[in-house]
């Protein structure tokens, strides 16, 4: 199934390379030059510079007195309880939101793929949360969870589920879960569309065959649909994990890391170290630790992805 | 037969339920934005406003209140920054994507991987050096500076979507055009681009949403109505006018309108754009 795209990648084989690729190489260089300049011209210097800053003690943007501390910043960060707490919260956020989005997204994709009257209406509605800007989404849910006049308190007490208004963003755990709810509402549609694309590429004959074999629908889902969706699910998993691990905007918009640092994720922690505490060396070291974790996660995923593709054959 | 009917009813119920869950929070924001303040702070809540109160919107369109004028300029800044970012990224990516999809050259895989790897960099890791560079070039608090850094964020995405989509355009079409005397670039514009329209629309949509949504760079690199974008303005509202949810909601509705409209219009290309993305890799 997934093979055609792959064979296209090596046209004419490697044998023809020398003469032909020279001309193509030059052309490719010129075609790619603008993209290379626009991306790496802007990104490379900061990437290197941040690595360098992470080895110095830098306490203001224009500081001149910046002693070299080697891995000192990293040592300080790694022995800081606040860092590990932030890592723990980030993992909690990442795992919970990604799992919820994947499960709900799969269900939603199935629904969008089903024979329903007015399916296009549903598809149109589903697109909305994804298009709502993250900061607007954060402000919206901050309003819903508001302790004094929030919609959630209003509806729960009107329906008699609670007598008193609750401060949903008032305790660290509740606030983190509230942020997750907001994130799931916004992101599940995107996950669903991605999985829907995967569903759409499964040929109908396979289902016909399953029907002929009198496989039950549950059985068909687990032994036909799910295995064929593995590539799409894996990509979503990688993308969502990376994104969730970097989470910043929605935290900033909803809770600013509070209460009692309860929603301070690792990117937010790096941001406050660099900008509120004015300690750029530390902030840079934390940033690099985030990069390392993301690279590790991606490597693990990509390996698993490759293995699962093999199992498909 | 009856079993099927029951399933169909259940499916439709599930669809209605899903639509409600998705729509209710958004509708709540819309209603709050036109409710009088007294309704918003009443206990128990008034779900249907006593009368429609449009003053927040009129403030923003006329720019008469402080919040209104901030928001108005933020909206204009966002439109300019997002549109320029999309236009620049699309042009640059179309050429780059053609190279990835059609040309054989050394380091092709490596280059593509490097573009994709930038996605793994957290923005926070680049903030301080970028701040220093932008201030060196006098581009802090300017739309041009913001467009530049946004492009570096958007181009890897558009490159990826377009390369994958160009791969699905049959080579024969292009070969035929070239036999007829088209150059490679001519074939790109006359054959590949028209055939790859869904991919192009998908890329435009994704890049617009990404640029419109960008927050962290705008938060750190902008400071005045010169270049402040809508997400920054909204987060300031939400921080400053904590008791005025109506104002935040009105800003939120206006800020959500452009991306929501674009997403709805281009909705059918989302899946096709992703199908191509999913088949590869």
Commentary on this structure:
- The complex is a heterodimer of chains A (313) and B (281).
- Chain A is mainly alpha-helical.
- Chain A has a single domain, classed as MetI-like (MetI-like fold, Orthogonal Bundle), CATH 1.10.3720.10.
- Chain A has 13 helices and no strands.
- In chain A, helix 6 packs across helix 8.
- Chain A starts with a helix and ends with a helix.
- The N terminus and C terminus of chain A are likely disordered.
- Chain B is mainly alpha-helical.
- Chain B has one domain: MetI-like fold (Orthogonal Bundle), CATH 1.10.3720.10.
- Chain B is globular and about 75 Å long.
- The C terminus of chain B is likely disordered.
- Chains A and B meet through helix 1, helix 2, helix 5, helix 6 and helix 7 of A and helix 1, helix 4, helix 5, helix 6 and helix 7 of B.
Write the layout of secondary structure elements.
The complex is a heterodimer of chains A (313) and B (281).
Chain A: H1 3-8, H2 17-53, H3 72-78, H4 81-113, H5 119-131, H6 134-144, H7 151-158, H8 172-200, H9 204-212, H10 217-245, H11 249-254, H12 266-276, H13 280-312
Helix pairs in contact in A: 3-13, 4-8, 4-10, 5-8, 6-8, 8-10, 10-13, 12-13
Chain B: H1 2-33, H2 37-40, H3 55-62, H4 66-102, H5 108-117, H6 127-136, H7 143-167, H8 171-179, H9 184-195, H10 197-213, H11 216-221, H12 230-240, H13 245-265, H14 267-279
Helix pairs in contact in B: 1-13, 3-4, 4-7, 4-10, 4-12, 7-10, 7-14, 8-9, 10-14, 12-13
Main beta sheet strand tally, sense and closure of chain B: none
Q: What would the average pLDDT of chain A be, to the nearest integer?
A: 84
| CATH fold node name of chain A | MetI-like fold
Structural class of chain B: mainly alpha
Helix content of chain A: over 70%
What is the count of DSSP helices of chain A, taking H or I runs of 4+ residues? 13
* Assigned CATH architecture of chain B: Orthogonal Bundle
Portion of residues in beta strands of chain A equals under 5%
Provide the number of structural domains of chain B.
Answer: 1
Membrane topology (chain B): Multi-pass membrane protein
Transmembrane segments (chain B): 9-31, 79-100, 112-134, 146-167, 188-212, 245-266
Keywords (chain B): Cell membrane, Membrane, Sugar transport, Transmembrane, Transmembrane helix, Transport
Family (chain B): Belongs to the binding-protein-dependent transport system permease family. MalFG subfamily.
